[in-house]
Structures are given as structure tokens and as C-alpha cells.
Amino acid sequence: MVPVPKLAVKLQSAIGFLDNDLSLWRTQRVTKKSIQSIKMGLMAISLFALVACSSTSDTEEGAMDGEASSNSSSSNNGSARTNPGSTSGQLTQEEIRAQNALRQTVFYFGFDIAEFNSADRETLSFHARDLAANSSKRIRLEGHGDERGTREYNLALGERRANSVLNYLIVNGASRSQIEVVSYGEEQPAQAGQSDNAYSRNRRVEIVSR
Amino acid sequence: MCSLFLLPFTAKAELSIQITQGSDNPIPIAVVPFSWQGNGVLSEDISQIVMNDLEQVGEFSPLSRSNMISIPSEEREVFYSDWRILAQDYLLVGKIDRAEGSQLVQVQYEFFDINREIKLAGEVLTGSVSQLRDIAHEISNVVFEQVTGIRGAFTSEILYVVAEYMNPERTNFRLEKADYDGQRAQILLESVEPIMSPSWSPTGRDVAYVSFETELPRIYIQNIATGDRRQITNYPNLNSSPEWSPDGTKLAMVLSKDGSPDIYVQDLTTNQLIRVTDHPLIDTEPSWTADSRSIVFMSERTGQPQIYQIELGASSFNVERLTYDCFQCLNAKFLPDGVNLVHVRRETRQDPNYKIAVLNIETLRVITLTSTSLDESPSIAPNGSMIMYATKFNGRGVLDAVSIDGAVRFRLPSTQGDVREPAWSPFLN
Predict the structure, then answer these.
(1) Domains and CATH numbers, chain B
(2) ipTM summary value
(3) What domains lie within chain A, and their CATH numbers?
(4) Could you say which of B163, B240, B395 has the minimum Cβ distance to residue A155?
(5) Cβ contact (<8 Å) for B285 and A152?
(6) Is B284's CB within 8 Å of A152's CB?
(7) What is the pLDDT, as a whole number, of residue A156?
(8) DSSP single-letter state for residue B10
(9) Model-level pTM?
(10) Contact call for B344 and A150, based on CB within 8 A
(11) pLDDT-based confidence at residue A88 (cuts at 50, 70, 90)
(12) Which chain A residues have a beta carbon less than 8 Å from that of B192?
């Protein structure tokens, strides 16, 4: 169906927070993910949409069609949601924020610091709510460090970083059984080299869908 | 998911030694080219290997071949005055023959004290042509011990990990074994997931390491000669830092199954697991004291990483702190003397450099052995004379070695990948 790529592009520009230095393959992956998160967002917020999606053989396109038609709709009230013909309503500010949040899957940490940045709290809350709303969803939290300090210490530190995210997700509604934690220490840098920039990109926790 | 190979092949890139700092007052020694009576050209130059061995460890200054005024290959050809004129203290001569009626070679060497005009050692070693390097290292051991009184470690080997970046999706990790000088490297394990923390068994027959091949860090033991391996841990969360006890009966390790990383000891015969430390902050990097009764480890229980010691069977509160005067002290292990503690050191919060240092726990004197900024994973030669460690050179991981007094250092550069986590073997013969 036509709306699929169109919508992805639209959403990207609407959301507009893609890192400048994302390489092509990552952009492509993000595009695909954004489609998934639209679907999930719709599934999570609209009971009717949930029914519609699960009853459609091609759920992705079904969601896209619903989304496309909702763009022409001017309101997002209760009656629209219960109307089988128009599926879900227009995305609310909250829903857009949720989708933005779910697309952020890498969280950066300070040097020698094991607690996640307080600025990431809201984003992680959306991840927690998403897990709570989708009990079959499984993720892996992969903790990483920069190369300064010993390898074993960084392995332990990476686990503490992942655990700081884990604990926050659980407190905010995720189930422990949905989340696997693993630390790679300094073994899998996101960026090679000894620059501060590389180091700051390497101190991170990644949320990886299972 | 992941591919994993056990390979008997020789690794592609051989490491070759580069001496980066020599001793101030080395002992002059003449190593005369060994004569060869057989046909063809030998694949190895025994006397050159001996010269390299002796020069690398720093106590010796081998005489250049071009300055020699005679080329004796056995005792009756030796004139002490020739070597006294050249201000040499010691002389090594030898000859190599094809062994009668076999493919083996016989290497005869003789070692002399020029000042006292006596023969100190001499024997005939027999082996195949492929064992010429081993024979050369044996001779180096004899020379080293005759002069210094310390057992030579030239026949020892090293384990290390190589990480070779292939593309953004893939890094190849290899566990390799080589002679102490990086020659004759062999791949023991290859994986697209990280390999970490190789540790020798005290017999030198097995290696314990961490592999992420199941996408989780788990501890494995592998027989070096046969390649047979088994996974020995599968606890939840972190399983890392295996370290064989000197008596060979136990494996210290780090597990976070009970919340945070703590030190545990697994009995290798009964598989019984004993918890050694119990603290909500990070405890890691266990190493053993020589009597296999205590464990030295790093803990951040006081806020930053410092070194502690605990006796097995003691209460987890009965911990002795060993380091105080550094911002971070990590990855510590005792030299064979049980008094000097080799460790990784970051002096102050403002100074983000990590260096290799030695702390004497009786005098509290600290000697910093390295001046680069990302030094880690110190491993001690079995005779305690040198420390091999991982550092960076031109942005790449390389292995350096430094003598215990900091006077001499050499580098084992590689042509491919990041080389890291050296583990120096125990005495193998």
C-alpha cells in the first residue's frame, strides 16, 4: 500500500529528532522500527484499534490505513474511537511523545557513573509503560562502558548501568520476566578511538527488542 | 546466532618483539653463532634466538656478531683472552649436528665465565628441527639462571585475546596462545561474540576463560592440547573473571547472581560453590595468594575501586584493605615474593590515566612502572622478573612487557586487530 513509506517519512520529519550522525543502515532500521512503534502505540491506546489490528491478516498495512485515514479526521473524540469505519483517532501529543520515547533505545552515562541520566527518566517511563501494556514483549538491556579502567571493572559497571535502567523500568510497571540484562563492559564499543566523543558514545545502555 | 570454531591452525599474524627501553648497566655477553654441520639451511638461528631472549629481559647486552674476533663452536676453540679484550663477562658457544641415522638434530652448547676462566654449563640437547626454538629457549634458561641465580622463563607461553574489527556488525574475537615472545601463535578459540579473561591452570594444560557465545558471559575450561572444552558456569547475570588457585583445586570467579558482583570460589572436583564476599557494591578481579588460602580482589565498597584481601572461610566482614593512596587501584596480584603487589593505578580523580604499579605492602613504597595512559591486565612472568600488560599504541591494543624494576621494556606488536588481556603461563617444564 502506498501510505507506508509516505507515513514513515512524514513521521520522521514530524518527530525530527534523529541524530545527525546516524548512518544509512541505522536510519533504515529506525524507519522500520517507527512503523512498528506506530502500530504498538495504536494497539496500546485504542481498544478498538487493538481489535481491528488483531483481526486483520496484514496488521501493518491495516494500522497504516487506519493511521492514514485518521490524518483526514479533524477530531479524536470518543465516538470516533468506537466507530468501526474510521479505526483509531489522530495521534495526541501524548501519543507522539510515547512514540518518540520508544524510538530512543540508547541511553548515555557519565564517566564512572552507573545511574542513568535524569533527563532520560520520562523516556524510560514510556518504555516501562509499553512493556506493562504488552506483557508478551521481551527486551534485553545491554550495558556498556568506555575503555578507561580495567575490563573486569567495566564489565561490572556495565551491569550496574543496565540494572539502574532495569530497576526504573520495573518500578514503572514492567515485569522482571520481560527483561534480560547483560553487560558487555568495554568489549563492544559503539565508536572506536580514544576521543572524549567516542568515550561518551560508548558509555551506554541499549534497549534491544527480543 | 554465533559461530564458533576450534582451530589447530597457526594464527595468521605473528607478533614480533621490539625492545623499547634497555637496561642502564647490562651484563656483556658473547653469543657466538652455533656451527651447523648438516646439509641445507636450518629454519631457526639458535644463537640469534638466545641473543634476543637475553636482550629482551634487559640484564644482558649481547655482543654484536661483527665485533667478534674468533668464532669458536666448542671448548677447545675458546681463548679467554679474545673475549677479555672485548670486555665480555660471559661466552656461549655451540654446534648443531644431524643425529646419527635420524631426522633429529643434536645441539651442543657450552657456557663460560670469562673472568674466572671456567666452564659454567654445557650439555647436548636432541630434538626435531621444529623444536629448535624450544632448544634455544632452554639454553637461554640455563644462561639466565647461571648468571642471575633466577630461573629463566624463556620456555613459558602467553595467552591473549585478539579483537579484529570486521564491519559495524561484526568483530571477530580470538583466544590465542604463543611463546612468551609472541612467536608461534596458535588460535585456541574464535568467536563473533566477546572472549575475555584467559587464565592458565597451574599445570599449564588447561585454560579458563569467559565467552559470550550464548550471548551471555559464561565461564569455560578448555584443554589446550586437545581443544576439548566444557562450560562450567551458567548462573544468572554476570559470570566472569575466572582465576585458578595455585594448587589447581579451585576456580575463583565473579558472579552477580545474588544481586551485585561478588567473589565466589568453585571447587573443581566437587563443584561446590562458596561465596567469598558479600557487598552491594562491585567486588571483582580476584587473584590468589601463593598458598591458595586467600584472595586479593578489587572492591568499590569505600566509593572507588581499592584492593582488599580476604581469607577463604573467613567472615565476609573480615576483609583487609591493602591500598589507600590512589584514587583507584585495580586488578591486583602478588609477585611470587608475596610482598609486592602488582596493580593498575589511577592516582587522582583529575588524572584519568591508568598505569601499572607495584606496591610493597610492608614498606608501602609504590613504584609506577609505566608512563602510558591506558595500561591494564598486568600478568606476571612465572619467575617474577617481568610483567606483561595491555596498552595502546597508535590507537591499537598491543602487549608490552616491563621488568619488575621498570628499567627494561619490550613490545609485542601485532599486524592485525586489538591485542589484549595477556596471561603469562606458569613454568611449563
Answers:
(1) 24-148 (3.40.50.10070), 156-424 (2.120.10.30)
(2) 0.91
(3) 1-92 (no CATH), 104-210 (3.30.1330.60)
(4) B240
(5) yes
(6) yes
(7) 97
(8) B
(9) 0.82
(10) yes
(11) low
(12) none
